[in-house]
Write a structure and sequence with these properties.
heterodimer; A: mainly alpha; 0% strand; flat; B: mainly alpha; two-stranded antiparallel sheet; two-stranded antiparallel ribbon; 4 strands; 71% helix
Amino acid sequence: MDPAWLSALTFLGVAFVVAAGALVGARLLGVKSRVDVPTRRDTYECGEEPEGVAWVRFHPRYYLVALLFVLFDVETVFILPWALNLDDLGLLALVEMVVFVGILLLGWAYAVRKGAIEWQ
Amino acid sequence: MFDPGELNFIGPEIAVFVFALLVLVHDVMFKQRNATISMGVSLMGLATAAVLNLLNMQAVDVPREAFAGAMAVDGFGFFLNFIVLLAAAGALLISHDFLRRIDVDVPEFNPLVLFVAFGMMLMGSANDLILLFISLEVMSLGVYVLCGINRGELASAEAALKYFVMGAFASGFLLMGIAFVYGGIGSTRISAVAQWFAIEGNGIAGNPLIGVGVALLLVGFGFKVAAAPFHMWTPDVYQGAPTPVTAFMATGVKAAAFAALSRVLLVALLGQNLEFHTALWLIAAGTILMGNIGALVQDDLKRMLAYSSIGHAGYLLMALVGAPAAGLADNPRLGGILFYLLAYTVMTVGAFAVLSFFTRDGVEDTRISRLGGLADRHPAVALALSICLLSLAGVPPTMGFVGKFYLFAAAIEGGAIGIAVVGAIGGAIGIYYYLRPIVVMYMHPEPADRVELAMNPAALGVLGVATVAVLVFGLVPGSLIEVAQDSLLSLAAWGGV
């Protein structure tokens, strides 16, 4: 068989073993409780008490905030490796980053003007 | 190392992008938005891009790579840029009065059109499947929003959602195809794929990874160009989207997607096309028949044009079936693909310019019966629409006829006689349904509850220019055909064959 297929098959096998192993292991090692207490059916067995159902409608402003977060998140992702290698890259890289951050700032200004972060 | 001089090659793209940002900033920074300024600046951006593109076209004689091979600088890309810029300008001009009438005041419309055009232009010159995918997403995301720009209208929202769900699904196929091809060959560079295939003993046969990849690519592109059996979304989306957006989708999106498909088929897979010949044959035949037969029974002109756009994608695929395995120079008629994309853009934008006049109390009403008596009321508009429709049907002496002639010639010269016969059947059906609106315009009485056509100078200008271009390039297509053929042959520079 083609070695490329063999590695894919191995990967598939490992994935299967890990997934099945977790289930089987839990069954074998888990403490079996015969008493049906209400907490067993909770979303979390410890920590915060869930309140209400999960299927509620969220206000779209959550998404706007999330989008703004992504804006700066991506910025960081690009700036970090850039900053580490700035010495080797030289002036051109600096100009490129100014252009990049400039475009992102423009997007941010646009979002602010549109009232994306006003939380009424 | 990156050479800043290479930025010249994406000059048109940069121009469109910068002007889009300008319009966006203008629209949010001033309390009182001036729609005319916004439109003017947008059109200036397109004009600047066209000039830069022309300069590039003259400066670059020999096709070359740029940005470490991610981009191909060649005549094919330049030609597509012009088509995209024309389509965007047409859509913007039609939209100017139309959006006001349907009461959509969205300042993001013009910038979105420009961003979409930016993605389309990159798509035409992408020499890397990853760049191709990203530019395709830039285009698609913009178009999803444009489809739903008329938020109050249920059909528009439905079109946007349908297009988004189906489009995201198709993008997945495309990306998966790219991954498989990369897995099999070790490069996403289109020219590198071609060179890999050129090595003796390398091929799709015996490499199931690449075979699966190519199949997935065909599915992904098939969706984007609305080829059967991946065309089901087209009528609903084209009908639901606002008319200027539909015009842009039918022309720009189709042209860009087709350019990307052509580059993959004619560069990366040229020597291999016998391996998937039957699949491409069936897709082409199905697309031609589905589009033309579907258009027969439509009572809405917009929906009819949607089906006809499927048919036109079929004719273009028909020419691709005739691609020679030995090298592009064997079949110069393939240049008809670029010519036809341009012709289709011009005549379709013209037809949609007329369609945009048909609104009633802020709602579109594009039933064919509304055309009744148009020839008596507005003989010039009726004549122009007739010319555009006849050109779509492929009747001489129009641009559509010349383009179709070259597509058939390309298929026949490539030995694909069977598909040419299917194409001829489709064309014959086409003449019937394109004549129907003309008959209604000239022979039927006005509908009793007629509304005055909302004619406006911008859309009339688009219609006039389109009609004249259809006739002029239909009568003397010589030089344009030559440019189209040279542009397509520039792809041969990349091939390993």
